[in-house]
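Re: [ENG-882] Designed sequences occasionally contain unexpected residues at chain ends

Forwarding the minimal case from QA. Structure tokens:
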């Protein structure tokens, strides 16, 4: 808790400092009450190693990732518009991520209708609430099913290409496969299909070794298409300063990063890493989504077993990881 308080203090210090630098007045900007977050910031665009809004201002957003969407895995019970509304209302989330399982049992290849409908539920809810939303092809082997990914993202681009809310994440976590020989050709096929329908929304591409090898993407970035960012994932128990150093080097090399998934182990022994990571994200303007909206008995679930699947959670419904994530998301400067 002490560590978290120091994070908040640091964030507040940074906010105040940046306000002083950016504005003569410390008064926050005001917007009409009916302006949503996405109306305010519009289409997200990669500009160098930053993601900027419609006014070319670097932005970073904080929110939640849903769990695998697969039938009967448990996490699919939370794919409800009420949950999106609750995360916006109570957690002040500005982004959510629909993580559509693909190859594993109960995933898209088994049941494309149920899984796709879960994604649509979340995306429609995010659009209604004025939030950003990631459509994630939640796969570890996407190159094995390129045609299916192409069809899915064509459908999503048809449905949602006009909405500034939507971000396409075409490959969650590649395993130990070649960036240049395997992932990049897959990405080329899927991006080409999306861009033939939707010329402009942000696309995020996973990187080798569970989206940790952003250095490999930085060494051979995708140059045939614009508005492409690269995925970085971290879990504080495994990934510490060495990964931040690698990610900082990738930023220095000129690519933009997006943390579509991260996990803490709550307020236990390594939560100082969550603090370190969030400070790094803030300083580098990197958006992040916390894994995961679920009540499964594992360290990264935000909810204790049996919590409501429709939001309305009180503190006792949250795990330590959930409480930590909520404090970070709720206090994240927009
Ligand atoms: Mg578009």
């Amino acid at each position: 808790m002490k560590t978290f308080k120091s994070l908040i203090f640091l964030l507040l210090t940074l906010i105040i400092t940046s306000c002083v630098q950016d504005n003569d007045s410390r008064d926050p900007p005001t917007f009409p009450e009916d302006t949503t977050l996405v109306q305010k910031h519009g289409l997200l665009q990669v500009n160098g190693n930053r993601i900027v809004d419609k006014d070319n201002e670097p932005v970073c957003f904080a929110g939640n990732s849903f769990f695998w969407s697969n039938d009967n895995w448990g996490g699919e019970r939370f794919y409800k518009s009420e949950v999106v509304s609750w995360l916006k209302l109570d957690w002040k989330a500005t982004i959510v991520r629909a993580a559509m399982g693909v190859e594993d049992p109960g995933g898209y290849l088994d049941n494309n209708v149920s899984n796709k409908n879960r994604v649509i539920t979340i995306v429609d809810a995010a659009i209604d609430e004025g939030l950003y939303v990631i459509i994630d092809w939640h796969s570890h082997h996407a190159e094995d099913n390129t045609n299916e990914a192409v069809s899915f993202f064509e459908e999503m681009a048809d449905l949602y290409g006009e909405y500034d809310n939507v971000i396409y994440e075409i490959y969650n976590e590649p395993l130990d496969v070649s960036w240049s020989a395997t992932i990049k050709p897959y990405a080329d096929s899927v991006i080409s299909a999306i861009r033939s329908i939707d010329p402009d929304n942000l696309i995020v591409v996973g990187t080798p070794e569970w989206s940790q090898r952003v250095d490999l993407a930085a060494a051979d970035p995708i140059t045939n298409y614009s508005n492409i960012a690269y995925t970085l994932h971290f879990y504080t128990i495994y990934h510490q300063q060495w990964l931040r150093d690698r990610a900082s080097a990738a930023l220095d090399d000129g690519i933009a990063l997006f943390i579509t998934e991260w996990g803490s182990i709550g307020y236990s022994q390594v939560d100082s890493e969550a603090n370190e990571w969030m400070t790094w994200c803030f300083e580098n303007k990197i958006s992040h989504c916390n894994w995961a909206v679920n009540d499964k008995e594992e360290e990264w679930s935000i909810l204790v077993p049996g919590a409501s699947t429709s939001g309305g959670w009180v503190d006792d419904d949250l795990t330590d990881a959930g409480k930590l994530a909520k404090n970070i998301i709720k206090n994240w400067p927009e």
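QA comment: On inspection the terminal residues look reasonable. The radius of gyration is 19 Å. Proposing we downgrade this to a documentation issue.
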